[in-house]
Structure formats: structure tokens, C-alpha cells
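W.,

You were right to be curious about this one. When I first looked at the sequence I had no strong expectations either way, so I just let the prediction run and decided to look at it fresh. Below is the sequence, 159 residues in total, followed by the output.
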Amino acid sequence: MGRLTILAFSVAILFSCTTEADQAQGIEKKEIRQSQLVTQKKGGIEETKTPKRASDSLKEIISDVAMSLHNWCIPIVKDMNSSTNIAAEVVEGENGYCRLDYSGYFNELRKLNTISEDFLIAEKERTSACAAFISTITWDEYMNGEAYQYGEECPEFYF
């Protein structure tokens, strides 16, 4: 999740900035209105351009998703008393062994209305090695373990 947060934040910054070429021409991105990019030149003269490529709208979507993740995650991380799941958590599974539970984390992501089911599937795949490893650990062993004991096998817990 730490890498995802950094990626989301980087993408958001990347797409929210004006380019050097725009700055050289004195153009500053102002806002998006109904699939038109409205720009403002120095001197207050407004110029409207319609996006020419489908990739422009894809950039907007990526930016919106990245910002939604950033705006959701950062306040939770800053609030030391928050009980909101921002990652899968280890819980007691069947027969006294651990399992990785995604339900709380995925429910929170679904509330954002910007996260696809494909992303949730990819999150499970990304953490599958950790889930497989953690399922071999007994609950008692996990609860009595040292902090960061499973960092090598499950680095996503330590961000």
C-alpha cells in the first residue's frame, strides 16, 4: 500500500502541473469543463482547446483516481487513532492459522467510487505471496511474534 500511495501521489502531481512548454508559452492550466481544456494566457486572454486524444481523458481519470486515493489515505495515516483499514489485515483463520483479510480494506476503497474491481483483483495478486506465507503461520505464533518479524515476506505491512 505504501508503494501504491507513493505512485498515486506522484501521478497526481504529474498530471496537475503545467508543462515547461506551457510555461514557456505563458499558458497555465486552469480547469476542465465538459471535455474542454480551458487555458489562460498571461494577460488574461482565455483560449479554449478541445482534447485531441483519448489519452487526455485517460490522464484525467488517472489523476482523479490518484487524488481520491491520496485524499482518502493521507488523513487516515495522520490520524493515529483511526481504525480505518488502509491495507489487508492478518486475522485468525481456520484451524488456528492466520489469513489475510481484505474485506475492510476493499470496502473502504469501494466507498471512494473511483476504484475498479480490476484494481481490487490486482491488489490480491500483488499480495498473494504474503497471503500464502501468512497462512502457514499459526495465530499464536503471529500474536507472539516480534514487530517487523514478517517484513521480508510481507513488506506491504510496513510502510
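Here's what jumped out at me. The mean pLDDT is 75. And, maybe more interesting for your project: The helical segments are 2-16, 20-24, 54-78, 103-111, 117-126, 128-134, 139-143.

Coffee later to discuss?

I.
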